[in-house]
Amino acid sequence: MDRVLPKRFWTTQRMALFGGSALILGLLVYTFFFTDRRSKLNVEKDKITVSTVSTGPFEDFIAVTGVAQPLKTIRLDAIAGGYVTEKLVEGGTKVKQGDVLLRLENQTLRLNFLQSETEANRLVNDLQNTRQRLRVERFSLRKTLSDLDFQINQAKDVFDRQATLYNQKVISAQEYTKAKLDYERLIEQRKIEVESQKYQDDNARTQIKLLEGTLARTQKNVALWQQTLNNLVVKAPVSGLLSSMDIEVGSNINQGQNIGQIDDLNGFKMRVGVDEHYNNRLFTGLTGSFEYNGQQHELEVTRVYPESRNGRIDVDMKFLKEAPKGLKRGQSTPIQLELGKAAKATLLPVGGFFSDTGGNWVYVVSKAGNRAVKRNITLGRKNPEYYEVLEGLQPGDQVITSSYENFGDNEVLEF
């Protein structure tokens, strides 16, 4: 007799179904929790530049361009205006102090000089006439006083005799009084004459002082006009190289107009243009160097110009020793300008990555060398060769330092 068997739960189909479901679920869990979901990009390793992070002295310097200039440049400005009648020296010629460069003509200046000279001559004549008149008046005073003294002596003699006769009752009171009045009148007349002559003498002396003062001022004016006329002959104030003088015969030159310059040939300095970004780090005493004809030449900053032109600040640097032989005005050369002392630091070579990331992150190559992963970093100072690494990288790390322009926003680069 047949027996009914109980129905089995784990049939082959069910086991296959549950097994497949578990496998799918495991794959989903693994994919969700364990797989790398970062964006990736395949790149060719031979088309990128990989640099090694290192440790060493960070030399805080920048590369600038210096232009050789004379230690001193003397501007030639026209002290007096006029038109050029003669040009004796051309630009680019060595001159000595006192050499005549130009001759100018100005008829107005010559007329003013003649008028001033004429006025000075008139004052000289007036002064001489006043002094002569004073001497004549003094002689006249002496003569007048001499006559009055003679008359006074005669009147006194008459008065004394008349007084004696009047006391003896020989003459009348009228005759005595007349002799007395005549004598007293002459005495008073002499006093008045002395006071009058003193006033005239003081007045003449005052006029002489005024004339002398006016004459002195006029003579100074004449001397100034003469000096101005002399300035119509333009001479070299110092010896040196007349580097430029763009003036031709017949040109009209205004007072104060620049007509050229003379370069002192006793030495050179370097005029350097520095990006205004480094303005707060520029000061006198900074040093620099450059190579010329196979020799190293040391420089020192002597002046920092305050104004910025076209985003650059001019700096003057002097040679600590003699300037190199053969250096010419206007010659340019690269200079290494030191902004601080060397200090030990973590160094990352300079590359095109900075323009794409701003130095905020880089791609770091894995130890296996098959991929590069984005990593945040912090950079400090920069020189033409290295960046100073403050955070995010360690010595020995391999970093892609070429441009990131074609990498987009991918976090992982696969080689």
Brief write-up:
This protein is α+β, with helices and mostly antiparallel strands and 415 residues long. The chain has helices at residues 12-33, 107-167, 173-230, 353-357, and strands at residues 40-42, 50-52, 54-58, 61-70, 73-77, 82-87, 93-95, 100-105, 233-235, 240-244, 252-253, 258-263, 268-275, 287-292, 295-309, 312-319, 332-338, 343-349, 361-365, 371-376, 378-382, 386-391, 398-400, 412-414. It folds into 4 domains: 40-59 and 343-414, conserved putative lor/sdh protein from methanococcus maripaludis s2 fold; 62-71 and 267-338, Elongation Factor Tu (Ef-tu), domain 3, CATH 2.40.30.170; 74-104 and 232-262, RNA polymerase II/Efflux pump adaptor protein, barrel-sandwich hybrid domain (OB fold (Dihydrolipoamide Acetyltransferase, E2P), Beta Barrel); 108-230, Helix Hairpins, CATH 1.10.287.
Your description of this structure?
- The mean pLDDT is 83.
- The protein has 415 residues and is an alpha+beta fold.
- It is built from four helices and 24 strands.
- Strand 14 (287-292) and strand 15 (295-309) form a beta hairpin.
